[in-house]
Structures are given as structure tokens and as C-alpha cells.
Amino acid sequence: QCAARLPEAEAVLDLLEKCPEHQEKGSFPVVVFEGLDATGKTTVTQSVKDTLNGVLLRSPPACISHWRTIFDDEPAPIKRAFYAAGNYILASEIAKASTQAPVIIDRYWHSTAAYTIATEINGKVQDLPPIHDEVYQWPEDLLKPDLVLLLTVDPEERVQRLQRRGMEKTKEEAELEANSLFRQRVEESYRRMVNPACQEVDASPSKEEVLNTVLQLIKKHCAL
């Protein structure tokens, strides 16, 4: 409905329509990294990609990520539709890449779902939908990864990392920093996701230690 007003929305829908309806994963493992900003996703995903000779993909995918700032300023339903569509477009890239090499992904469906749930529900963690609610289920028609790793760090450490970066804050990040209840809702939503669930990884230690932990989990859960 917003395509007439927003040419970028029409372009996203065109890309979505070109994606095959059923995405089949290739024989190589697909590993997703989730977590709040400054939990080390960029560093870890790059290191794992290099170690495994893999392919690194991100959500939203490169073909639409340059429109992200446009959709972030739109009303919540349009913004969410952009990120959801991005996951399905990304799935077709994953399907292709996983026939040739291990695929490492910086955010995927769990991010879209966790932030949506945390935004829609006000209040404390107790106010979130109950643990077995269908909102925490992976969509049946979306290509599933083999493993989802949730990187976590102590809230104070995360803020210090962000300050050291000195980068401009996203709207999401400003909200996370200003509103600890929002941050708690996002993190708890991640933990409640199922099929596949997130495996939590403490990303506070050194880069080498975190990489070692991550590689051991990939070895344990994926056929490498």
C-alpha cells in the first residue's frame, strides 16, 4: 500500500517476488550471530568467516541495506515489513551460498522478531508474551540456519564499547541505552526464541577466547 508513496518499497517487493518460494539449504553449515550492538558481532563474524573459508552475509542484505535509513523513519508496520522482507531476500542468498561454502550471518529473523516484540510490548519482562507463545516460533516458510549464537556482554561493558567506538547511535541503540526495560525485553525475547533456539555465548572475554568458544560450538552442532 505504501509503494505509491515510497518507490523503495516497490523495489523491495520486486526483489522479494523474484525469490523462489521454497528455499533449500545447501550442504554447508549456516550459522547466525545475534546480539545487541557492541557485543562483538562484526569482529566475530569476520573471524569465523576467515577461519572457515566461509561466506559472510548480513541482514538486511546488501541489495536493500542502503534503504535502511529511509525505512527506519517510517511508521513501525512499514519498518517491520522492510526487515521481514529482507530476511526472505537474504534466505535466497543463503540457499545459493550454502551450496559452495559455510555461511556466516550477521543477524537474521531472530533480530527482527526480538525487536518487534520488545517494541510492541511496554513494561517489564513479565509483560512479554508467555514463553511458548507462537511469536517466538521460526516462520515455517523461511530457510532455517543450523545454529544461532547469541552474543551477550554485561550492559555496562557494552555501553563502554559503544563510547569507545564513537559512532553515531542508531534509533534502536539510543532506545536501548535510555531504556533498560526495553533492552531487557529484547534480550529476553532472544532467549525465548525456539526452533531454532539461540545458544548464548559470553562475549566479554578476549576476541581469541570468544572465537575459540564459537568455533567449538560450530564444530559440535554443525557437520564440518
UniProtKB/TrEMBL annotation:
GO cellular component: mitochondrion
Record protein name field: UMP-CMP kinase 2, mitochondrial
Organism expressing this protein natively: Sula dactylatra (Masked booby)
E.C. code: 2.7.4.14, 2.7.4.9
Top enzyme class: transferase
Gene name of the record: Cmpk2
InterPro entries in the record: P-loop_NTPase (IPR027417), Thymidylate_kin-like_dom (IPR039430), Thymidylate_kinase (IPR018094), UMP-CMP_kinase_2 (IPR014505)
Catalytic activity field: dTMP + ATP = dTDP + ADP; CMP + ATP = CDP + ADP; dCMP + ATP = dCDP + ADP
Any one GO BP annotation for this protein: dTDP biosynthetic process
Record keywords: ATP-binding, Coiled coil, Kinase, Mitochondrion, Nucleotide biosynthesis, Nucleotide-binding, Pyrimidine biosynthesis, Transferase, Transit peptide
Domain called Thymidylate kinase-like: residue spans: 33-212
Cellular location(s): Mitochondrion
PANTHER family assigned: THYMIDYLATE KINASE, UMP-CMP KINASE 2, MITOCHONDRIAL
Family statement drawn from the similarity comment of this UniProt entry: Belongs to the thymidylate kinase family.
Gene Ontology molecular functions: ATP binding; dTMP kinase activity; nucleoside diphosphate kinase activity; nucleoside monophosphate kinase activity
Predominant place of localization: mitochondrion
